[in-house]
Write a structure and sequence with these properties.
Subcellular location: Cell outer membrane
Strand content: 35-45%
Structural class: alpha+beta
Number of strands: 9
Function: Involved in the storage or transport of lipids necessary for membrane maintenance under stressful conditions. Displays a binding preference for lysophospholipids.
InterPro entries: Calycin, Lipocalin_ApoD, Lipocalin_bac, Lipocalin_Blc-like_dom, Lipocalin_CS, Lipocln_cytosolic_FA-bd_dom
Distance between the termini: 54 Å
Main location: membrane
CATH superfamily: Calycin beta-barrel core domain
Order of helices and strands: HHEEEEEEEEHE
Strand order of the largest sheet: 1-2-3-4-5-6-7-8
Largest sheet: 8 strands, antiparallel, barrel
Domain Lipocalin/cytosolic fatty-acid binding: 33-173
Number of helices: 3
Length: 176
């Protein structure tokens, strides 16, 4: 193998190993997590902007526990500019044990991003989810809408955790 190719492969391996799926310091991750209760469909109520969901509404995520302990993730949303539905299927793995709501999710081969539940309704009706840093945040719910008091509570929690809640995108949920 030529030396340049070997150096490229080594640097790529180093870069991939440096990619962390751990949450930002200071974020409290939900423990006593029950993936069986979390499984199923969740609707996106709000999110911080990022390229892979830009321009989408009616976004949902469906989580399905797999035999090997991983979680299949089916993300679906309506791309307004193209007037069509888009889907992406990924795989999530727990960063430690399944009772701690810290996972890494991949939609693109060996590249993983963090998925950390930082607040969760005791009845699993809503969740506040962060990525690896404070530029990723989602408010998810089992229903397409949440009461304003619940939204206010989640916004307060997100602000206390250091997220800029003024830039949240409120997702329309109007299609079936």
């Amino acid at each position: 193998m030529p030396i340049l190719r070997r150096l490229f492969c080594l640097s790529l391996l180093f870069w991939l190993s440096a990619c962390s799926t751990n949450p930002s310091p200071g974020l409290q991750i939900v423990d006593h997590f029950d993936v069986q209760r979390y499984a199923g469909r969740w609707y996106e109520i709000a999110r911080l902007d990022h390229s892979f969901e830009r321009g989408m509404n009616d976004v949902s995520a469906t989580y399905t526990l797999q035999q090997d302990g991983s979680v299949q993730v089916l993300n679906r949303g309506y791309q307004e500019s193209e007037s069509k539905w888009k889907e992406a299927i990924g795989r999530a793995l727990f960063n430690s044990t399944p009772d701690i709501a810290s996972l890494k999710v991949s939609f693109f081969g060996p590249f993983y991003g963090g998925y950390h539940v930082i607040a969760l309704d005791p009845d699993y009706r809503w969740a506040l989810v962060a990525g690896n840093d404070r530029s990723y945040l989602w408010i998810l719910a089992r229903d397409k809408q949440l009461p304003q008091t619940t939204i206010d509570h989640l916004l307060s929690q997100a602000r206390q955790a250091g997220f800029d809640t003024h830039t949240l995108i409120w997702v329309k949920q109007s299609r079936q």
